[in-house]
Design a protein that fits this description.
Length: 256
Amino acid sequence: MPEPLAIEIIPLTGIGEVPVGADLPTLLATAIATSGRALADGDIVVVTQKIVSKAEGRFVSLDEIQPGAEAIALAETTRKDSRLVELVLRESSAVVRAVPNVLVTRHRLGLVMANAGIDRSNIGPGNTERVLLLPIDPDCSAAGIADGLHDRTGVRPAVVISDSFGRPWRHGVVGVAIGVAGLPALIDRRGDQDRDGRTLEVTQIALADMLATAAALVSGEGAEGIPAVLIRGYRWTPAACPASALVRPLEEDLFR
């Protein structure tokens, strides 16, 4: 039997409000040092999407959005701000569900989520009409953070960019990975055998989503103010693959 894992989930505190253009690798390296630790090989840094989007300047003011006819009609159905609905449509490739107080779309990245991931909570002081979009390329953002941490510390950790998703048949949100660098977002176990010698036929492990949810136990979803987490002690061997590998292709969508 393999030795059981002993995994640490360490909050990275003191990062504070992240401004547009912030040097995230430096902020993270400082927070890791402040925690009394140094990055080590095999470490995983989980960073919330929100501070990545803030640093990348993904703010939009609803004052600048002129809703079109489709957005106005959907706003009446969903009882949402028509300017927000217009922005959701611009960020999306398809509307999946529109009912009162709910607008679920397929984001241009392939992610099926409420309001195309556009957020108004915990986005900092200032214009109350501001909203925050997802990063343009979260996998690329994760790789940039990993490279930056390597430049500053000499160690290149794996990086997961996390967000919170609801589930269609269960209450509550869980952490999911929308960007990954340095580890396999998805581990394909098909063809392996279980303890009884039976061949696994459909088992694929959403490793990056599991790590994102583990990190959310520490980072929280409200006013905790912990936008990054260090995970230490988890071991993996498969080659790296991006978070985009987690998105089920349209032709495999079982519920359309």
